[in-house]
Amino acid sequence: MTRALTWRDLAALPRLQKQIVFLDNVLRLTYNPGLFSSSLLSILTTSSGFCTAVNPIESDQYPFLVGQAYQPSDDHSARVTFLAPGDLDHEGYTDLLAYMAARAGEAGALQILAEIEQNSLEYTILTRAGYQAYAEQQIWRIPRRFLYGSGKKAWIPITRSDADRVISIYQRLVPPQIQRVESPPAGNTQQGMLCWKDGQIKGVAFTNIGPTGILLDLVVEPDLDGLDDYLAALFFHLPYRNYRDIFLRIRSYQQRLASALERAGASPGPIQKAVVKKLAVYYNAKQTFQVQGFDKQPDVTTPISNTEN
């Protein structure tokens, strides 16, 4: 029976360490945590946003299936961060994923996302659990020998006053089927940069910076001239670039960016599918009623679930 991870389960995690499969590129590329450390976080503090679950199975090789979901406090989307073991096609994964989805829904998430290598075992497992693909993508790795240029092209750090500009260019350039799942990452704009040309915004870069790497999501005008120079300038202005690996997440509609990265000597990763599962949200609602004739009395707060009429 699927349940939350407990202290007694930690001793068995090292047996699964080499079989962990990460389904969240931000966590994998910017933090690169181990199975034990990422699982321990969900036990130490309930406010971390991490939910780690196990599903005991009858197997001589593995004690259980384990998976984790994460929901940031300011986001209505949760993410499947990892599954393990990654070499076992077991029907118990369906119950495990359903458990994590239910916990995310109870916490207020409207959907749960994952990023999976195309035609992989994990893609089959999540499809079976009701996940649907909404985007195709590749992760490109920037070589250490990359020439960052002189930085003459304008990339300016995003400030709070740029929120409307960020939303505008995002809504204009990102396909609707992706916008229906991924809203503009306004909460992360302090780590982003805007591309300016002739007094107009021509692109935006959203950055996720962690201790081990930097993951960029880049949206630019399809007719932007000198794209190679603007890419070089972006990396020139990027903080911490000399101390961390740099990755770009390129969606299938951004082939022009992919071509520019190929000319620069960047290395593409395997084709991935971004998938989503819509969730039913559970509300612990309370309604305040003001009774006529008692205007000067304190309001009576009654849980809806306890009302008889």
What this model shows, in words?
24% of the residues lie in helices and 30% in strands. With 309 residues, the chain is of the alpha+beta class. The protein folds into two domains: 3-135, Gcn5-related N-acetyltransferase (GNAT) (Aminopeptidase); 144-264, Aminopeptidase (3-Layer(aba) Sandwich), CATH 3.40.630.30. The strands form two sheets. Strands 1, 2, 3, 4, 5, 6, 7, 8, 9, 10, 11, 12, 13 and 14 form a 14-stranded mixed β-sheet that branches. Strands 15-16 form a two-stranded antiparallel sheet. The model is unreliable at 283-309 (pLDDT under 50).
When the domains are counted, the total is 2
Overall structural class, as computed from helix and strand content, comes to alpha+beta
As residue ranges, the low-confidence spans are 283-309
CATH superfamily of the largest domain: Gcn5-related N-acetyltransferase (GNAT)
Q: Average pLDDT, to the nearest integer?
A: 86
Helix fraction by DSSP (H/I, runs of at least 4): 10-25%
Portion of residues in beta strands equals: 25-35%
Query: Using only CA atoms, what is the Rg?
Result: 23 Å
Total number of helical segments? 8
CATH fold name of the largest domain: Aminopeptidase
Shape: elongated
